[in-house]
């Protein structure tokens, strides 16, 4: 079946822009009051999450992806490093194949040793959580996504 493009007339575009502008101008105080309630509800909804294969002493088990991510994010702090995100790659057999730890480092932190400590801690936590199944995972990748603090560039406030 072939998609037939819908013609958009210039007058329809003007009407749409006018409708969007009118919508943006409406300020209902009840929206601000409802916002925290909506946010609380959305955060309490169970998240769909894939299983990650793990090996317990009693046999194979599955651990949800968001549990693995939370476990890795709760690792002891490395001085000058803040974990921003944990990204897991899981294959079709529920095997964890790669881990990327995204971090922000404080200005002045020596990056390579800090990244090595994050990598070692991530690998150790994976081994404790997943058991023998952690051996299937490649070396954790540490991504420096931001540098925080430090002196301001000249000419900026």
Number of strands: 5
Q: What's the level 1 CATH class of the domain at 51-148? A: Alpha Beta
What's the helix count?
A: 4
Quaternary organization? single chain
Main sheet properties: 3 strands, mixed
Structural class: alpha+beta
Helix content: 25-40%
- The N- and C-terminal alpha carbons lie at a distance of 58 Å
Radius of gyration: 24 Å
The SSE string, one letter per element, is: HHEEHEEHE
Task: Walk me through this protein's architecture.
This protein is an alpha+beta fold and 157 residues long. Helix content is 39%, strand content 26%. The chain has helices spanning 10-25, 29-44, 65-73, 111-130, and strands at 51-56, 59-64, 81-90, 96-106, 141-148. The longest helix has 20 residues, at 111-130. The protein is extended, with a radius of gyration of 24 Å. The N and C termini lie far apart (58 Å). The model is unreliable at 1-5 (pLDDT under 50). This is Alkaline shock family protein YloU. It comes from Kineosporia succinea.
